[in-house]
Amino acid sequence: MLHPAFKHPVDDAQQTFRSLLDALAQPLRLSALPCLPPALPGLSRGSAALLYTLIDRDVSLWLPSLPDDTLASLRFHTGMNLAANPAEADFLLLTAGTPLPPLSTLKAGSDAYPDRSATLLIEIEAFNQDQVIGSGPGIPHTRRFGADGLPGDFWHQWQANHARFPLGVDAILIADDRIAGLPRTTRIQEG
Amino acid sequence: MQTRQRWLSVLANSPPNALQTLLAPWRQRTEAPVWLRRAETGLVMLQGRAGGTGARFNLAEISVTRASCRIGEQTGHGWVRGSNAEHAELIAVADALLQDPRHQAELLTQLVAPLQGALDERRARDARQAAASKVEFFTMVRGE
Predict the structure, then answer these.
(1) What is the pLDDT of residue A190?
(2) Whose CB among A104, A166, A183, B65 lies 3.0–4.6 Å from B41's, allowing a Cys bridge?
(3) Other C-beta atoms within 10 Å of A9: how many?
């Protein structure tokens, strides 16, 4: 059974994309998604909105195991190509409880094309402010940040990811309808 | 499956007004469609083969409008040549209802059959008109 997507496919995807740009320009600052589609089984509304916005037939997507309804609906609305393994994917969606693939094994781009790298969409439970201190482009001074439900050694792996700049992966953290951007340029200090 | 192909073809080639009139009572009786995709218009490349067997070539781009909806458990798709959004949505609704075993037999006789009849009549009339204008060319045998 297929599920409906955005009410106004073009306008809603454009607004979502705009808020995604803002989130990546001001890392670790929370922003609310402006348009939410009806929920898909197994996915939060925010993840569904981002997938409808970002995915088309030209990129490959890695998904954890999801109900058939959800896969069929995503295929219908986006024309997605599923990647066989995380290392080949342009986008990866990690739902709560999905183990984190080692960040160093994902597409990191090349020196000539650092943009040909993977983007992670990570569902978390909630945002807080007491895990890490972030700094870097888009952050005046420093910004306190935290996320409940992140895989254990995520921040540790992130420091290695940041050290590979200009190569590396970017991440977007999603808690229902709120998102925070985490580009590879953001320095993370734990504690 | 062949029947679905046939009814989609009949629905797409029938005038939207006739389809709307015939479908109206059904739309009142059945639950409202959940729209998966409202009508949207795009371009499709038509390909042809000379004589039906030659190499494939691009003939032209045509505009096509499509829409999809769900009624109960059934998903209906409507595709129509041109840019008539309402027509595509009517086909999607009719397609979803036609796939429902509770309505199928009745709809095939009350909706598809009359449209098919009108379509056949129109095609026969066009064929007659074309046949009437047929010109036979004779070449005189060059005499010695």
Answers:
(1) 83
(2) B65
(3) 16
Residues of B in contact with A75 (CB under 8 A): none
3-state secondary structure of B15: coil
Asked whether this complex has an ipTM greater than 0.85, the answer is no
CATH code of the domain occupying A9-190: 3.40.50.11310
Q: Which residue reads 């254990």 in tokens?
A: A152
Q: How far, in Å, CA of B69 to CA of A58, rounded?
A: 26
Residue of A nearest to B37 (CA): A4
Residue B35 lies in a domain: yes
- Bond prior to A166 in cis (omega within 30° of 0): yes
To the nearest whole percent, how much of chain B has pLDDT over 70? 97
Q: Which residues pair with A93 in a beta bridge?
A: A121
pLDDT digits (tens, 9 = 90+) for B61-105: 999 999 999 999 999 999 999 999 999 999 999 999 999 999 999
Query: Domain count of chain B?
Result: 1
Per-residue pLDDT of B39-51, as tens digits, reads 999 999 999 998 8
Which residues of chain A does B35 touch, with a Cβ-Cβ cutoff of 8 Å?
A: 4
Residue B138 is assigned to a structural domain of this protein: no
Report yes or no: A67 and A95 within 8 Å, Cβ to Cβ: no
| This prediction's pTM | 0.87
Distance (Å) from the C-alpha of residue B57 to the closest C-alpha of chain A? 24
Closest residue on chain B to A8 (Cα) = B38
Nearest to B34 among A4, A76, A77 (CB): A4
* pLDDT at residue A125, rounded to an integer: 93
- Mind telling me how many Å the CA of B51 is from chain A's nearest CA? 34
